[in-house]
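Worked example 3 (structure in, sequence out).
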């Protein structure tokens, strides 16, 4: 109760603070008039007609319309097929109906208007080119005692236009027709305040209006809520008062550091439920301990450049997943550890609070020592699904964050992992009324937002930065791979949108975890069938969210073995952004050379043949084979040993340049390092010009002709023509008859010791070696057999003693 009283005082103070605009930083809002006075109107291109005065309103002054005056702005920006208008409004009389604003000439074709009727009902109506209308409305919402924050949005769709109405940050659902079919022709480009059509329609209205903003895009639900919180001054932004951790994971301002290095979360949600199974606790416990599943997935995550996985479920007993992720510190992957919170408990009950504080304490104690732990994630979109008082939820979450911190800092420890609440976007975020502001959540170190938007984040991050000083991770984002309109998949669109989302967020927050690693067949209908369905939404290309199709990996049944994972295009598009190494730099030594090409050669399958998992890294275009297209990507990155890859390599992988398309894996001079006319696609030793296909094979323990065989059997049979025991290459007179003491074909006379049998190397060969040292190449008439090992000659004498 003390907490509630304190915050009520803060709110009353904040509501009298005036600010003019949130426009700054990376966000550009096309139009904003604070309606402070006539000068403000004039500076924004407005013209006052009739009687309009300026009095104290929601934020400083606002415009007072008495039913006779209007303000008209003329600008081509208002001819937007998708857009939004935001404002504060309060009635000043009890009149039954009146206009608030119109774009175009409302009541005529190609127009839209915002008005009130039946005293306190509010309506937003849009008319197409033939005068057919769609309307969104809310009953009994307007007041003469307090301001209502109103946002209207419209969006061009394939079938027409979708319209929405929001009051005080919340979308108003009703039974009105909210999809306008047909076309909408550009109107006269007028935004008129204080009126919505002529009498006997709704005419001029009576009321106070403030902070009018126009956006040439459809605000997302999250942006609408943030606009409401910020415009209403319902936030408290405050830096944390907690001392930074002294451990390997720490926050500093809005930055995250791991082992003293600035860390950008390049992550993905990981919960690979096999097809045919449901998302039960038993299944989840099983998959996180299954070596076959983990050994299949973690190398693929690592190859993608992922450095973080976000978990939705608590880990079972055992630490197998975390150990495999960390990998002894070699290319480690970190985990945002989920702590699950049910929706059907009383968040205000002291016993429940004590129970869950104890539960998270036990969980943190179990895993806090694991090097792969990055943060503790509390709940998941509880604000979206909880039907009770949201203030109770955020208070409860703060209690859990406090318990986690106290467990890690017990016994005077100063090392701890950050805590995070995973929220549904900016809905209910940062609002003192919900205890979701920075002061109320003083034990929560950072926010996680599941932030789904229509292709562009627009002002999302700017709103966030105005409302909260806490670091931010986008804990879910992305689109699914199924096009409901066309009834087939569109992986290229998924790849393009997901990459675009990443590029927008990378400099605006700590990073993000994509939704999701693999398709989730358990979400709709039969778990053994890949269903389509889901729900309508404003933030997908086809305005439909197919929940089973978000994976960067498709699932294919593999009978009793773990499912086969097949990468979609988005796997490759994000790999090009995530990776700190060029994708063809397989050994990650900073260059792309013949060693890397050796791996590519092994992986080359040709068109239409799937590679093995350990060769997915060579399928650069994620089309499930390693072919000439992939060779083109590789060629673009060849740098040679110890030479960094050129920017052209990244241009190709990031889609800003085209890759070459070779016609075959045959000769390419860029890869002929020894200049023997054969490149590394066929040359088994591109550092030796004497070794290449079609070269003459000689006896040298090498594969001279690159046929896969070292020293073919007939090459190393060395003749002894005169059968004197001296092989021809070492015999000065190879044609002398065997047994002659003096070589008779032009060789100088030399008398050797008689025929001997070696029984003692040191004593009985003295007479031989004393003469042999003067001329090593004379024949040695011993009763020995020769053996050749390809490099030197060995003698095997009668008593099997070896002599050189």
């Amino acid at each position: 109760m003390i907490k509630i009283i304190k915050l009520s005082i803060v709110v009353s103070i904040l509501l009298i603070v005036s600010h003019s605009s949130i426009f700054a930083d990376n966000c550009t809002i096309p139009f904003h008039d604070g309606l402070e006075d006539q000068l403000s109107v004039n500076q924004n291109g407005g013209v006052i007609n009739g009687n309009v005065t300026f009095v104290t309103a929601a934020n400083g002054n606002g415009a007072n319309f008495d039913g006779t005056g209007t303000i008209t702005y003329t600008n081509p920006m208002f001819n937007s097929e998708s857009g939004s208008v935001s404002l504060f409004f309060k009635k000043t009389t009890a009149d039954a109906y009146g206009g608030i604003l119109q774009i175009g000439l409302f009541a005529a074709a190609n127009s839209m208007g915002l008005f009130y009727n039946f005293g306190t009902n509010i309506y937003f109506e849009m008319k197409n080119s033939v005068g057919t209308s769609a309307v969104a409305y809310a009953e009994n919402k307007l007041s003469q005692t307090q301001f209502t924050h109103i946002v209207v949005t419209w969006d061009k769709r394939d079938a027409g236009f979708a319209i929405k109405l929001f009051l005080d940050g919340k979308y108003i659902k009703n039974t009105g027709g909210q999809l306008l079919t047909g076309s909408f022709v550009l109107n006269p480009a007028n935004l008129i305040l204080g009126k919505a059509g002529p009498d006997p329609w709704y005419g001029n209205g009576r009321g106070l209006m403030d902070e009018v903003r126009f956006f040439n895009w459809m605000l997302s639900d999250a942006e609408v809520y943030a606009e409401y919180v910020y415009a209403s001054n319902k936030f408290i932004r405050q830096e944390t008062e907690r001392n930074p951790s002294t451990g390997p994971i720490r926050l500093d301002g809005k930055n995250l550091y791991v082992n003293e290095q600035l860390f950008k979360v390049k992550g993905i949600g990981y919960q690979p439920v096999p097809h045919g199974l449901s998302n039960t606790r038993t299944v989840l416990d099983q998959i996180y301990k299954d070596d076959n599943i983990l050994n299949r997935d973690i190398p693929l995550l690592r190859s993608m450049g992922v450095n973080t996985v976000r978990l939705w479920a608590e880990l079972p007993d055992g630490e197998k997943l975390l150990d495999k992720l960390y990998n002894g510190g070699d290319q480690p992957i970190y985990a945002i550890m989920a702590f699950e919170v049910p929706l059907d408990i009383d968040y205000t009950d002291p016993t429940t609070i004590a129970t869950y504080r104890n539960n998270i304490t036990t969980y943190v104690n179990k895993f806090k020592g694991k090097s792969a732990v990055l943060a503790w994630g509390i709940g998941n979109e509880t604000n979206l699904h909880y039907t009770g008082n949201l203030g109770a939820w955020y208070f409860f979450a703060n209690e859990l964050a406090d318990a986690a911190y106290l467990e890690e800092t017990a016994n005077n420890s100063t090392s701890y992992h950050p805590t995070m609440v995973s929220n549904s976007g900016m809905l209910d975020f940062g609002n003192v009324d919900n205890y979701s502001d920075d002061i109320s959540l003083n034990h929560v170190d950072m926010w996680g937002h599941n932030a789904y938007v229509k292709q562009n984040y627009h002002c999302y991050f700017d709103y966030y930065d105005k409302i909260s000083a806490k670091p931010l991770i986008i804990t879910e984002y992305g689109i699914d791979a199924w096009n409901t309109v066309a009834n087939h998949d569109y992986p290229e669109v998924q790849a393009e949108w997901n990459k675009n989302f990443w590029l927008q967020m990378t400099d605006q927050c700590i990073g993000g975890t994509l939704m999701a690693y693999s398709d989730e067949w358990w979400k709709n209908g039969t778990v053994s069938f890949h269903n389509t369905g889901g729900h309508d939404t404003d933030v997908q290309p086809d305005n439909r969210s197919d929940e089973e199709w978000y994976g960067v990996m498709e699932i294919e049944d593999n009978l009793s073995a773990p499912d086969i994972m097949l990468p979609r295009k988005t796997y490759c598009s994000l790999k090009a952004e995530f990776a700190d190494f060029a994708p063809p730099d397989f050994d990650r030594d900073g260059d792309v050379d013949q060693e890397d090409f050796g791996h590519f050669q092994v992986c080359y399958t040709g068109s239409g043949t799937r590679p093995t998992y350990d060769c997915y890294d060579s399928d650069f275009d994620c089309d499930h084979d390693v072919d000439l297209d992939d060779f083109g990507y590789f060629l673009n990155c060849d740098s040679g040993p110890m030479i960094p890859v050129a920017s052209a390599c990244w241009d190709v992988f990031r889609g800003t340049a085209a890759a070459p398309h070779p016609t075959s894996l045959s000769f390419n001079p860029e890869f002929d390092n020894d200049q023997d006319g054969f490149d590394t696609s066929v040359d088994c030793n591109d550092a030796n010009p004497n070794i290449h296909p079609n070269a003459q094979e000689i006896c040298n323990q090498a594969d001279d002709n690159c046929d896969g065989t070292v020293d073919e059997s007939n090459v190393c049979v060395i003749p002894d023509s005169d059968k004197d025991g001296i092989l021809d290459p070492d015999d000065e007179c190879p044609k002398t008859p065997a047994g002659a003491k003096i070589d008779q074909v032009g060789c100088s006379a030399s008398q050797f010791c008689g025929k001997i049998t070696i029984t003692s190397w040191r004593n009985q060969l003295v007479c031989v070696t004393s003469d042999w040292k003067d001329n090593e190449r004379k024949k040695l008439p011993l009763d020995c057999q020769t053996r050749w090992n390809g490099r030197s000659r060995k003698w095997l004498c009668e008593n099997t003693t070896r002599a050189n």
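Notes: The chain has 17 helices and 38 strands. The longest strand covers residues 148-157.
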